[in-house]
Amino acid sequence: MAYKLSEKIVWGIVAAIRKILSFFPLKVRYSFFENLGLLGYYLIKKRRKLTLDNIRQAFPEKSDEEVVRIAKESYKTMGKMIMTSIYSIKIPTIFFE
Length: 97
What we know:
This protein has helices at 5-21, 26-43, 45-58, 64-88. The chain is mostly helical. The protein is elongated and about 50 Å long.
C-alpha cells in the first residue's frame, strides 16, 4: 500500500513524539498530556463554550465552579487518551526502512 506524503508526515511526527516521550517515565508523560488537554481547553474557545453548555444542560444543579472543574477534568482525560492512543497504535514499518 502506497502512503501519501501527508500520511508519511503525520506518522513521522507521531513516531518522533513517541520516541522522545519514551525517555520519560509514564507519570511524566501523563502529566504532559494532561497539561496539553488543559491547553486545548483554554485555546479552543468555541469547544470550551460548547463543553460548558453541555455540562450545564446535563447537570443543572451544579454550580458554575463545579461545571468548570468537570470540563477541565474532561479535557485532562482527553489528553491522557491521546497519549494512550499514540502508544497503542502500530506505526507502519515503511517509515523505518
